[in-house]
Amino acid sequence: MLIGIHTSKECFPGTSPFVITTYFPIEGPGIDGLSWNHQEFKGNEPDDTPNFYYYWRNTAADCAPGKHNYLPNCSGNESTVELGKYYPGDDKFYFCAGAGYVENSFTLHIGIDTFAEVCLHEKNHMDNWHDWWPNGYNKDQDADEDYIPDYLEPDLGLKVFPIDEGRCSCDKEICEDFLKKLPGVDPKKYAVDFECIAYKAEKNWKVCSADDEDYSDMSRKIFKKNYSCK
């Protein structure tokens, strides 16, 4: 089995500070085909965080250093693979397993590009939640239940819809697009402006811009997925 090598100035007193960290793939039960980073050990088992997370969080794709963690099973349902997760009120958000190998159905990107887009999406949720609900969510200030205070919506170019008319006014094209890709979803329950705004934030990522930094085992190049890098 190959192992990682970590050297630092503590290893060589009197020398200039430097750190060299090298990661190699390992295989074993429960790894599910992914190469896993092993900076930390739990007994004789490697940390269960995949190496794409360790690699990509050290690149330009990480929009919020120190503000997130990896969560192996975000949905709690083995049949559902999620890309990212934000729990309202938390001071951090989470990358899920899907961020490493699942195509982003909104942008049709994959690999490090999806990681960057998930970062922007979940950070948008986190920042907006803390800005808009510093004292916690108040349903009395949110008639259309889109997680945006009603008094803020006009300034944001949004509308306060009655419940029976749906809750998405931030971008018609985006709302229609993600509802089309999620058949069976009730727009009255899902197509909220809070979510739509986070999808818009994903468009701030310059696709392919971190390819030169990407040496993970989930490198976009291995998927042989061709899309425009504009």
Short recap of the structure:
The protein has about 230 residues and is α+β, with helices and mostly antiparallel strands. The chain has helices at about 50-55, 100, 110-130, 170-180, 195-200; strands at about 5, 20, 40, 45, 70, 85, 95.
Characteristic terms for this protein:
230 residues
Strand order of the largest sheet: 5-7-6
Give the rounded overall mean pLDDT.
78
Q: Segments where pLDDT lies below 50 for 5+ residues?
A: 1-12, 20-46
Major sheet details = 3 strands, mixed
Helix content: 10-25%
Residue fraction in strands: 5-15%
Question: Helix tally?
Answer: 5
Quaternary structure type: single chain
**Backbone CA Rg:** 20 Å
Describe the structure.
The protein is built from five helices and seven strands, in the order E-E-E-E-H-E-E-E-H-H-H-H. The protein is 22% helix and 8% strand. The model is unreliable at 1-12 and 20-46 (pLDDT under 50). It has one domain. The protein is α+β, with helices and mostly antiparallel strands. A three-stranded mixed beta sheet has the order 5-7-6, covered by helices on one side. The chain has a two-stranded antiparallel ribbon with strand order 1-2. Strands 3-4 form a two-stranded antiparallel sheet. A hairpin with a 7-residue loop joins strand 6 and strand 7 (93-95). The two termini are 40 Å apart.
